[in-house]
Amino acid sequence: MTEGFLKMLRGAAPEESAPPPQPGERVPRHSTGLAEFHRLVEGEGKLRVLDLGPTSPTNIAYLIGHGHKVYQEDILRAAVSSRYAIKDKDGKVALDAERFLAENLQYTATVLDAALCWDVADYLPEAFVRPAVARLHRALKPRGVLLAFFHTRDAGPEAPHYRYHLVDRENLELQPGPQFRLQRVFQNRHIENLFKDFSSVKFFLARDHVREVLVVK
């Protein structure tokens, strides 16, 4: 990792776990990583921000209200399309990462200032994870900021998938979203390796078994 560092915050106040929301219900959640995300981008003027996941009118209104331009893309829904299923040389079903990237995350180099990736990587099929991160690295400007969440324990493949709605600088609302299968649980070293081309990786551990990870290109 170029001039990289890995830092775990241990002195921050622990964050309380919340019961799973019911369908349609929104549950508040404090986010130290989101607060740090805002600290890094404030004062940068009008930004181009990518919000990955199901469309959130709340997020669009919040970001536009702060003068930013919003890009929104639901790559999880795209990733489960049968159009990306192919057969490998042994006749086994595989996923076509090349076609996936040809049809998704189509951003020119260094066009984005920031990306909100939430927990997309935990639910994205394995074949698409590293190519998607590489594409995001290319799309971000130098010193561009990316915020991502990762599960810290295996809650099973049926772990609920949430939509994340921005409330303010350090608060979110979680709402049960489309059901996607939890693919894996990344360990710290795996996350660091996933973002090895970025200049810095910073971890924030919350009580609800989620690692909040802030990376800077």
3D architecture notes:
This protein has 217 residues and is α/β, with parallel strands linked by helices. The protein has one domain: Vaccinia Virus protein VP39 (Rossmann fold, 3-Layer(aba) Sandwich). Helices cover 26% and strands 31% of the residues. It contains 7 helices and 12 strands. The protein has a 7-stranded mixed beta sheet. It has a 3-stranded antiparallel beta sheet with strand order 2-10-9. A two-stranded antiparallel ribbon has the order 5-6. The longest helix has 14 residues, at 126-139. The chain is globular and about 55 Å long. Residues 1-18 have low confidence and may be disordered.
What attributes does this structure have?
217 residues; alpha/beta; Rossmann fold; 7-stranded mixed sheet; 3-stranded antiparallel sheet; 12 strands
Low-confidence stretches: 1-18
- Going by helix content, strand content and strand pairing, the class is alpha/beta
How many helices does DSSP assign?
Answer: 7
Q: What proportion strand?
A: 25-35%
CATH architecture verdict: 3-Layer(aba) Sandwich
| Total discrete domains | 1
Kindly state the percentage of residues in helix: 25-40%
CATH class: Alpha Beta
CATH H-level name... which superfamily? Vaccinia Virus protein VP39
Rg over alpha carbons: 17 Å
Q: H/E series, N to C?
A: EEHEHEHEEHEHHEEEHEE
Shape: globular
Mean pLDDT: 88
Strand order of the largest sheet: 1-11-12-8-7-3-4
**Distance between termini?**
11 Å
In CATH, the topology is named Rossmann fold
